[in-house]
Structure prediction request, 504 residues.
Amino acid sequence: MITASERVALPPVIQGGMGVGVSNWMLARAVAQRGQLGVVSGTALDTVFVRRLQDGDPGDHMRRAIDHFPIPQVGADALKRYFLDGGRAPGQPYKMLPMYKQVVSVARQQITMLANFVEVYLAKEGHDGVVGVNLLTKVQLPNLASLCGAMLAGVDYVLMGAGIPREIPGVLDAFAEHRTASIRFDVEGVPSAEPEYLTFDPQAHGVGLDIPMKRPRFIAIVAASSLAATLARKANGRVDGFVVEGPTAGGHNAPPRGKLQLDERGEAIYGERDAVDLEKIMALGVPFWLAGGYGSPEKLAEALNAGATGVQVGTAFAFCDESGLKNDYKRALLEKVRSGTARVFTDSVASPTSFPFKVAQLEGSLSEDQVYSARPRICDLGYLREAYRTPSGAIDYRCSAEPVTTYLSKGGRLEDTSGKKCLCNALLANIGHPQVRNGKYTEQALITSGNDLVGVDRFLRPGASTYSAADVIAKLITGVGSRVRSSGDASHPRPACARDLSHC
Prediction:
């Protein structure tokens, strides 16, 4: 449990761990240097990493961090296999990693470890601020290797939502002691009395007892007070805080409670049952941050007055200079914001997970029906695949965005394929790493954003067309008084003071 004195030093602003590579090491580092919690996204980070190498590693950043990985042969093997000096030839497709399964090779796990180490190492490089990693609970297969790699780099926080991360605190405890960790593997058709597991042994991957593995703080991302209560009381280890996220946040949203109803635009309708009871959250006695439309100084003040430690902000950071979102997309959407034409649609069918998914409307992207229809259906990254038990008793994998006949042959339902989009490939296109297929088709973007997109021009200085992470932080802390302090000095960051909940 975090003590009252420790609460005072908790960051009031958490930068959201967005998308695939949007919350990259440069963004997290810029935020952490200013006394707030910078967060890297660990989702599909192994693929992001090897694509950076195949693009020639501009700036030599990947190779600089690889030199510090405590298991040198892993880095040497990765460079030999994936690094292309000068980058790929025009039209050359990326070399693919094998898709994850319940059991994969040691080398496949070690690429994931290395990728997460590199991202966290670079985010923490050269300053004393705090850095977290965000992972999706539902993307189960890479998570253990991802956590191990992030901990090898000294990650300070782990943030996880998109599911019930009840077993993750115990994983962090085990890894901090160099012990094997396991989590239950969700497999459709497997009886609860016959559970399947994912297991990871750090020492089997070269993490000796002499290599430090500190236990990071764990923050669960929740959309209901009941889930927070379950995690606080029944998790297999310490839960250090919560991010309470509303349905206006970008990316995947928790579905509305009860029967799904759509409005005239086709968006999910959220009601009173979906509002989070903050009194119940406070009663749990752990710090919490509010998220989803809290990217303004007024909302930060509101959160502090409601007893929160602070806010998590995603959309504002997603469109700042340091984020990994491709600059062309940033410029186009910021221009829409300035002209008053920006629009975000909560698509209830786009994601293979069947969770509502926020989509920024942008010409030339998969948000347009004709662009979506022109894409050949293919699933070759597989992060959102679901595992299921076959009639023979084996475990196989399917995705409702894969070719329809393939999905049906695996026991999927036809109605589940309608409107499904390959988020894995689209999110990599968002950050400038689209796959090229047969020299003819290049994967297109599908940009996610919170509803707060329409107001991000508040961070633009007079006459400016872009803004930085520092601009976001400076604007957010305006007018909230001594409860929040921020440092612009990377070498001597002051503690970011949040409200002491022991006095609430």
Residues 329 and 379 are 24 Å apart (CA to CA). Confidence is low (pLDDT under 50) at residues 485-504. The first strand starts at residue 13 and ends at 15. Residues 4-253+264-503 form a domain with the TIM Barrel fold (CATH 3.20.20.70).
